[in-house]
Specification:
The chain is of the alpha/beta class. Helix 2 packs across helix 9 and helix 8 packs across helix 10. It is elongated.
Length: 357
């Protein structure tokens, strides 16, 4: 069931939600959280579809905030709120309200969203694109217990990771981190099978893929060993190599679907490691609403390395950000190396440490 409201208010939207529930015969509210999606018109459909698929696991009230920028100066002074209320089969397993903001109300989206939040239920805000540099200080982000961004959708993802680390607040997370959950689980399980010390590591993937950077930061942070960051043609993250005193452990995924796990002294085995879609990533993030301390530790570990003036410029454009060459260089054991899969070099490590997972 769909109810269209033009030039409306939050009070009228709440009444429409009650009316819709009664019309389909489900007056009770059985949702576990409020998911606020902040996006533009171009990406609204894909974001709403992914959230709708995730709602089968997490029934929720979805509020889609679309800021419409008027080109005419006259229209910018005329505030208006249009809404589309969806309940029943049109809203997955919860309720959906699509909010289109015009004029001055664009700068006060929190005043529209606040009356529509489910009482006594957690709030998650997700920016599929164009996330603020400091999500916790954003007016909408301040309403939430969890704030989800996606650096992969940014023009300069590595620089975006620097900004995320500088502005990190407990409750922040990123889908680039969520994408490497299967890799982290597989590597931890592989290390459980051997009684060896890890002396070095290498992460191989696309040049400007933030998930590759985060995995390298995580390995360096948890294992306290030097990590090489190698570039490949993708797709995404393609291989991880752990050098141990018992021989190498290699997790190689060349096709983005099926990976091969190689451990010294054991037969090679094929493992399913497909690239997951956005609905699966959002569903995973909604399973936990507490701060992700592991993500915070990995993110902060990489800040000094990313700020080194000797690093290659970030982004396809090639030029480093203004003032980057004046930043203080802080030595770190992670280095960036460009090469192909056939010439992988073994990471050198003068100090041996026991693997910490």
């Amino acid at each position: 069931m769909k109810i269209d409201l033009t030039d409306t208010t939050a009070s009228k939207i709440n009444k429409a939600l009650v009316q819709g529930r009664r019309a389909i015969g489900t007056p009770a509210v059985g949702m576990v959280l409020t998911l606020v999606i902040v996006t533009d018109e171009e990406n609204a459909y894909d974001a709403l579809k992914a959230a709708g698929d995730a709602s089968h696991e997490h029934p929720s009230r979805m509020l889609v905030v679309i800021r419409r920028v008027s080109r005419s100066p006259r229209d910018r002074t005329q505030s208006r709120l249009d809404a589309e209320v969806r309940v029943g089969a049109d809203a997955g397993t919860g309720e959906t309200v699509v909010l289109r903001l015009y004029g001055e109300v664009v700068d006060h989206a929190q005043s529209v969203v606040l009356p529509l939040l489910l009482p006594d239920a957690p709030v998650v805000v997700w920016w599929p694109v164009n996330a603020p540099l400091d999500p916790a200080k954003d007016p909408l982000g301040a309403l939430a217990q969890r704030r989800v961004t996606d650096t992969y959708a940014c023009e300069r993802p590595v620089q975006e990771l620097v900004a995320r680390a500088d502005a990190y607040t407990p409750g922040d997370t990123d889908l680039s981190w969520t994408r490497i959950t299967p890799w982290r689980s597989m590597l931890a399980a592989a290390l459980d099978q051997v009684a060896c010390q890890v002396v070095g590591a290498e992460v191989e993937g696309e040049e400007f893929n933030p998930s590759c950077e985060l995995l390298a930061m995580w390995l360096a942070d948890r294992l306290d060993v030097p990590v090489k960051r190698s570039r490949s043609s993708g797709p995404g993250l393609t291989a991880v190599r752990l050098d141990t005193d018992c021989g190498p452990i290699v997790l190689d995924r060349a096709d983005g679907s099926l990976a091969t796990l190689s451990i010294q002294g054991q037969p090679k085995r094929a493992v399913a490691l497909k690239r997951r879609d956005t609905a699966e990533l959002i569903a995973e993030e909604l399973r936990r609403l507490d701060p992700d301390d592991t993500y915070a530790s990995a993110l902060r570990y990489g800040v000094e390395r990313l700020k080194k003036p000797s690093d290659a410029p970030d982004g396809p454009g090639g030029a480093p950000a203004k003032g980057e060459s004046e930043r203080a260089a802080v030595p770190a054991p992670v280095e960036s190396v460009a090469k192909g899969p056939a010439d992988r070099a073994t990471a050198q490590a003068p100090v041996k440490r026991t693997a910490a997972k």
